[in-house]
Amino acid sequence: MTPYQYGIVTLKDYDKYCYYAAGLPGISLTRLFAVSGLEDPGIVKNLELANTKKH
């Protein structure tokens, strides 16, 4: 077993980590807030922005 077997080594690893650690919870909370009325329901139409890459 190498020390980096389960760590973040590459930019691709970092992107994947960020998606699961922040992206999915953020998308879920946005949907929850929209359904509950705490947020404008139209915000759910822009969820594809959560998966855009700028590098």
Question: Layout of SSEs?
Answer:
Blueprint: H1 11-36
Question: Would you give an account of this structure?
Answer:
This protein has 55 residues and is mainly alpha-helical. It has one domain. The chain is 47% helix and 0% strand. The protein has 1 helix and no strands. It has one helix at 11-36. The longest helix has 26 residues, at 11-36. The radius of gyration is 15 Å and the shape is elongated. This is 3487_t:CDS:1. GO terms for molecular function: squalene synthase [NAD(P)H] activity. It comes from Diversispora eburnea. InterPro entries: Isoprenoid_synthase_dom_sf, Trans_IPPS_euk-type.
Proportion of helical residues: 40-55%
Low-confidence stretches: none
- Report strand %: under 5%
- Total domains: 1
**What is the chain-wise order of helices and strands?**
H
Biggest sheet, in brief? none
Overall geometry comes to elongated
Helical stretch count? 1
Judged by helices, strands and strand pairing, the structural class is: mainly alpha
Q: How large, in whole angstroms, is the Cα Rg?
A: 15 Å
Query: What is the end-to-end distance?
Result: 31 Å
The total count of strands amounts to: 0
| Average pLDDT number | 83
Explain briefly what this protein structure is:
One of its GO terms (biological process) is farnesyl diphosphate metabolic process. With 55 residues, the chain is mainly α.
Based on the model shown, name its key terms:
Isoprenoid_synthase_dom_sf; squalene synthase [NAD(P)H] activity; single chain; mainly alpha; 55 residues; 1 helix
